[in-house]
Amino acid sequence: MLLNESDTFPIPTHSSLYHKQPMTWLLFYLLALSLYDLRTRRIPNWCTYPLILAGMIVHFPGHMDLWLACFLLLSAWASGWMGAGDVKLWMAVLWALPDSNIPSLILLVFLSFLITSIIQFFWRIIQKQSLTGMKSPAAWRTIPFLLMVWHVH
After folding, report:
1. Residue-wise over 12-26: b if at least 16 C-beta within 10 A, else e?
2. Any idea where the domains of the chain sit in the sequence?
3. Which residues contact 95 (CB under 8 A, 6 or more apart)?
4. What is the pLDDT along the chain (153 residues), one digit of tens a residue?
5. Which helix (H) or strand (E) holds 126?
6. Hey, is 76 helix, strand or coil?
7. Which of 88, 141, 135 is nearest to 110 (CA)?
8. What is the distance between the terminal CA atoms of the chain, rounded to a whole angstrom?
9. Spatial distance between the Cα atoms of 44 and 33, rounded to a whole number of angstroms
10. What backbone phi and psi angles, to 5 degrees, belong to 60?
11. How would DSSP label each residue in 39-50?
12. Closest by CA position to 22, among listed 149, 115, 144
């Protein structure tokens, strides 16, 4: 069967690999997972492993900055700064993003953690909670990160 010219899929000629629909679905997925994390203080493996696996299949071998970010996240978990579910969620989000975000990846992760830490700091002051030594749900921190990636690219 021969395909007509109108039956073929055009190859994008622009440099941006971001398409609004997949990024929108990822945003809704992260929003739902963040709400689940706020309620249960857990991020199930069945929510993170498929996204990590799909991202690794599509983007393997990945870029050095992606591997560095994953290493830093695992180091944060090993040091007790982050929970294992949060680390897996961050790794899933990083692997799910298209390759064009790589040069600014570490900077955007750092900015996201900085901005959300300031927000969490003031929230704890308002709620009269301890500022240190307290673990809290952190899946919501991926949402500002994804919005920054979306805006920058």
Report:
1. eeeeeeeeeeebeeb
2. 19-152
3. 51, 52, 54, 55, 56, 59, 62, 66
4. 455 555 544 444 344 444 556 677 888 888 888 888 888 888 899 989 998 898 888 877 877 888 888 898 899 889 888 888 888 888 888 888 776 555 677 777 888 888 888 888 888 888 887 766 667 777 777 778 877 777 665
5. helix 105-126
6. helix
7. 141
8. 39
9. 9
10. -65, 140
11. HHS---HHHHHH
12. 149
Cα gap 2→50, rounded to integer Å: 36
Q: Tokens 């952190």, residue?
A: 138
Burial class of residue 138 (count of CB atoms within 10 Å of its CB; 0-12, 13-18, 19+): buried
Residues comprising the chain, all counted: 153
What is the rounded CA–CA span in Å between residue 48 and residue 12?
A: 29
CB count in 10 Å sphere of residue 2: 4
Give the residue carrying structure tokens 């203080």: 41
Q: CA 87: distance to chain centroid?
A: 10
